[in-house]
Amino acid sequence: MQDRRNGARHVISFPVRVKWKDESGKEIVEDGLTENVGQQGALVFLPRRLPTVGSKVYLTITEHADDEVTVIAQVIRLERNASHPQAAFQLTDSLRVWKKKVWEHAGEILAAQKPDDFDDW
Prior knowledge:
Blueprint: E1 9-10, E2 15-21, E3 27-38, E4 41-45, E5 56-61, E6 69-79, E7 86-91, H1 95-112
């Protein structure tokens, strides 16, 4: 199977809040964690409910309560694994804000990490 994704991803866990409306028009709010972030989207673990493919959501990175980043995204894929449900989102607006406050921030965090010391066996 060919990988259709473009661009690099940072494997990082940021807390998120996802809001969408279900089929009946009721607003759903779920908290979760990013699995990875790209320049134009993210893969997110949502433990309870998943939006439907194609739906519009408000994706908020809640890493810093005083500087939350909210973007509009579309659901492009779901992983309905019972123990680890995930939704893949592609941003439809605020790409510059996302790139600066999420993508670049994730890269800085990962670049500052030091590798684990190896134990002698």
